[in-house]
């Protein structure tokens, strides 16, 4: 893996497990529902998926802010 990371000029500290975490958050960012993410990770406990693997990305924060702004505009 170290050789591939060097060739791709990626962070040499990346591990297969860190890529799994990133993959999980990107699935959530893409709107994939929790049950499908759990299936993809072979998880049976949603708490493991939610508490260990899912991170709120910058794009998710931006989307939440935009949705809230739209909601507030709808009250006018």
Automatic annotation (TrEMBL):
Residues annotated as transmembrane: none
Annotated InterPro entries: DNA_brk_join_enz (IPR011010), Integrase-like_cat_sf (IPR013762), Integrase_catalytic (IPR002104)
Pfam assignment, any one: Phage_integrase
Keywords: DNA recombination
Domain Tyr recombinase: 1-66
UniProt protein name: Integrase
